[in-house]
């Protein structure tokens, strides 16, 4: 059985997409079922987000006034993520501190640095530059666990890195954004810390508590959580796109180039970091996705609240693209492994 979390909100095998958390089933029939469910998740989610983005672009008036709801929608996704967590996720961090620390450092060094470099290389306007950098400073992406599974990577390591990168986001994302994006726009790091605590950390912890207190009832709801998360993220994308619909026609091409570069280089450098750290092939594959895939929902929420709807555009595009590129890369790595 498979689980997921960003595009989907779970990290455990009980739920599916910021997650597929699962050890490979021992029986071939279960393995086939898990693969089928995982592929369905990473296929449906990008399509759902793409449709939502199109609705936001074509019918922006339908989402007028929705921008204030984005933090609450993100809180729903993070709560679903917390509900799928178990003590085993945290024990995995203690078992492999070196590998998890390497993944954490690689994530918060490579992606923010790439965001800053790409903003300069493409000479992006201030709003878009800040948006690209903010995506790079976000924690690990929601579908990273599921694509690691499909790529035959080290899922346990993927889950551990994703969990820690999310929990430390309130301490890391704001100062990194201030350091790298401050030259483009004013950044209120203190206010950003508060927002991340409210929209990420508290909902995740609330989900963990609910899982511990009402595990029997939560178990029944787990299959539906990934899809609740997927629909919620799609709504966030629609709202973000609608807020900057007038500017998208002129900026979409440039933003797409920036996102493709950001994500592609992140995947490659993440894999390289795993090889340099001697994590082996499965561990390197996990590192590729934990570095190259971002929590774009959080980036979109923060950009909308602290910068402008236009600054949230890179996060909206990243939300679609990194799931597509992740699924394709996972399929290629899986075939190469065979």
TrEMBL record:
<keyword id="KW-0812">Transmembrane</keyword>
<feature type="transmembrane region" description="Helical">
    <location>
        <begin position="251"/>
        <end position="274"/>
    </location>
</feature>
<dbReference type="Pfam" id="PF01758">
    <property type="entry name" value="SBF"/>
</dbReference>
<keyword id="KW-0472">Membrane</keyword>
<feature type="transmembrane region" description="Helical">
    <location>
        <begin position="225"/>
        <end position="245"/>
    </location>
</feature>
<feature type="transmembrane region" description="Helical">
    <location>
        <begin position="69"/>
        <end position="86"/>
    </location>
</feature>
<feature type="region of interest" description="Disordered">
    <location>
        <begin position="1"/>
        <end position="35"/>
    </location>
</feature>
<dbReference type="InterPro" id="IPR004710">
    <property type="entry name" value="Bilac:Na_transpt"/>
</dbReference>
<keyword id="KW-1133">Transmembrane helix</keyword>
<dbReference type="InterPro" id="IPR038770">
    <property type="entry name" value="Na+/solute_symporter_sf"/>
</dbReference>
<protein>
    <submittedName>
        <fullName>DivB protein</fullName>
    </submittedName>
</protein>
<dbReference type="InterPro" id="IPR002657">
    <property type="entry name" value="BilAc:Na_symport/Acr3"/>
</dbReference>
<feature type="transmembrane region" description="Helical">
    <location>
        <begin position="98"/>
        <end position="122"/>
    </location>
</feature>
<feature type="transmembrane region" description="Helical">
    <location>
        <begin position="128"/>
        <end position="148"/>
    </location>
</feature>
<feature type="transmembrane region" description="Helical">
    <location>
        <begin position="155"/>
        <end position="176"/>
    </location>
</feature>
<dbReference type="GO" id="GO:0016020">
    <property type="term" value="C:membrane"/>
</dbReference>
<feature type="transmembrane region" description="Helical">
    <location>
        <begin position="44"/>
        <end position="63"/>
    </location>
</feature>
<feature type="compositionally biased region" description="Basic and acidic residues">
    <location>
        <begin position="8"/>
        <end position="35"/>
    </location>
</feature>
<feature type="transmembrane region" description="Helical">
    <location>
        <begin position="196"/>
        <end position="213"/>
    </location>
</feature>
């Amino acid at each position: 059985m498979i689980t997921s979390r960003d595009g989907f909100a779970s990290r455990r095998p009980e739920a599916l997409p910021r997650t597929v958390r699962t050890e490979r089933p021992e029986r071939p029939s279960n393995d086939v079922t898990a693969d089928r469910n995982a592929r369905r998740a990473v296929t449906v989610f990008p399509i759902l987000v793409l449709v939502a983005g199109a609705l936001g672009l074509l019918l922006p008036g339908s989402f007028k006034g929705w921008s204030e709801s984005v933090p609450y929608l993100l809180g729903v996704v993070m709560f679903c993520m917390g509900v799928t967590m178990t003590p085993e996720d945290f024990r995995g961090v203690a078992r492999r501190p070196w590998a998890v620390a390497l993944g954490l450092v690689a994530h918060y060094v490579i992606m923010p640095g790439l965001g800053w470099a790409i903003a300069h290389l493409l000479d992006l306007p201030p709003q878009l530059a800040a948006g690209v950098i903010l995506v790079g400073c976000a924690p690990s992406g929601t579908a990273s666990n599921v694509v690691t599974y499909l790529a035959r990577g080290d899922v346990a390591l993927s889950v551990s890195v994703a969990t820690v990168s999310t929990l430390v986001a309130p301490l890391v994302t704001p100062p990194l954004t201030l350091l790298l994006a401050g030259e483009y726009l004013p950044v209120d790091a203190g206010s950003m810390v508060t927002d991340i605590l409210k929209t990420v950390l508290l909902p995740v912890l609330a989900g963990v508590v609910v899982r511990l207190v009402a595990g029997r009832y939560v178990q029944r709801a787990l299959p539906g959580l990934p899809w609740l998360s997927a629909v919620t993220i799609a709504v966030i994308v629609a709202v973000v796109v609608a807020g900057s619909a007038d500017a998208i026609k002129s900026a979409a091409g440039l933003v797409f180039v920036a996102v493709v570069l950001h994500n592609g280089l992140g995947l490659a450098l993440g894999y390289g970091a795993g090889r340099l750290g001697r994590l082996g092939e499965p561990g390197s594959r996990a590192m590729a996705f934990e570095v190259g895939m971002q929590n774009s929902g959080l980036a979109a929420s923060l950009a909308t609240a602290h910068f402008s709807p236009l600054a949230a555009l890179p996060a909206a595009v990243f939300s679609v693209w990194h799931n597509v590129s992740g699924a394709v890369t996972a399929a290629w790595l899986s075939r190469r492994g065979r």
